[in-house]
């Protein structure tokens, strides 16, 4: 069970994205989770409500939350679309799709959640970012820029609404076992591992620990938690 400092309902945008899936399963053991998915339908879970896209998020929360004054609403932003080629080689439709997923979806989601959090006098916002936000390389220009945008957006929200007991934290993730690592050849994975002080990729339990910390500690609002195992790209 959660305490009075942690959410009792968590909305997860991009619930089926890589390493977040086992994290959501763990969180659902202690609170109700609204899983917003894109195309992959999540496996049924008695403590989860699943919706495709955010068009029905308001209706879902209205049905789920009986007493708004007792709601402690949390949010985890895990949705993203990865860039697959150099900017000049990306089609305009694909660039628009990148911006829609990585930026517009978050703006729309916040416009739904923030009024509820303000009315309840409680909110916990977590944005899953990437070390690419400060270290872009070839073929990551839009992806890296959108992650930097997300960090700035959530930092600003935390400063604007902290007076309503709404905190906002970005978790800047390094190399994890799933996600981009799935696309790396064995030799490239070995090279990446050498840049990590702990000499291993991040795991779901590492992310879960950071999320629990961010939910429980409101005083890190508007900050960035570096979750990279001591990544050194200098």
Radius of gyration: 17 Å
Segments where pLDDT lies below 50 for 5+ residues?
none
What is the percent of helical residues?
Answer: 25-40%
Following the backbone from N to C, one meets helices and strands in this order, namely EHEEHEHEHEHHE
Give the CATH class.
Alpha Beta
By helix and strand content, what is the structural category?
alpha/beta
Q: What's the structural domain tally?
A: 1
Strand content: 15-25%
Distance between the termini: 43 Å
At the third CATH level, what is the topology name? Rossmann fold
- The CATH architecture assignment turns out to be 3-Layer(aba) Sandwich
Average predicted local confidence, pLDDT: 92
Rough outline: globular
The strands making up the biggest β-sheet line up spatially as 3-2-1-4-5-6-7
- Biggest beta sheet summary: 7 strands, parallel
- The CATH superfamily turns out to be NAD(P)-binding Rossmann-like Domain
- How many beta-strand runs? 7
* Count of separate DSSP helical elements: 6
What does this entry show, briefly?
The chain is about 35% helix and about 20% strand.
Task: Give a verbal description of the structure.
It is a single chain. The protein is an alpha/beta fold and 234 residues long. It has a single domain, classed as Rossmann fold. It contains 6 helices and 7 strands, in the order βαββαβαβαβααβ. Helix 1 links the parallel strand 1 (9-13) and strand 2. Helix 3 runs parallel beside helix 4 (141-161). It is globular and about 55 Å long. The termini are far apart.
């Amino acid at each position: 069970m959660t305490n009075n400092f942690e959410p009792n309902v968590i909305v997860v945008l991009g619930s089926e994205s890589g390493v977040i899936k086992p994290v959501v399963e763990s969180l659902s053991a202690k609170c109700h989770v609204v899983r917003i998915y894109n195309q992959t339908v999540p496996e049924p879970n008695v403590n989860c409500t699943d919706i495709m896209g955010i068009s029905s998020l308001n209706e879902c929360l209205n049905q789920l939350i009986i007493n708004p004054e007792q709601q402690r609403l949390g949010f985890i932003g895990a949705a993203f679309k990865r860039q697959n080629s150099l900017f000049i080689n990306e089609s305009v439709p694909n660039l628009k799709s990148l911006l829609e997923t990585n930026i517009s979806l978050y703006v729309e989601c916040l416009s739904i959640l923030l009024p509820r959090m303000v009315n309840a006098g409680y909110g916990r916002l977590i944005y899953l970012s990437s070390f690419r936000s400060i270290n872009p390389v070839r073929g990551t220009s839009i992806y890296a820029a959108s992650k930097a945008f997300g960090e700035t957006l959530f930092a600003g929200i935390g400063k604007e609404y902290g007076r309503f007991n709404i905190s906002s934290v970005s978790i800047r993730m390094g190399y994890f076992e799933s996600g981009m690592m799935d696309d790396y050849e064995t030799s490239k994975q070995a090279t990446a591992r050498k840049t990590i002080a702990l000499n291993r990729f991040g795991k779901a339990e590492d992310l879960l620990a950071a999320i629990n910390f961010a939910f429980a500690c409101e005083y890190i609002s508007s900050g960035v938690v570096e979750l990279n195992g001591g990544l050194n790209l200098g």
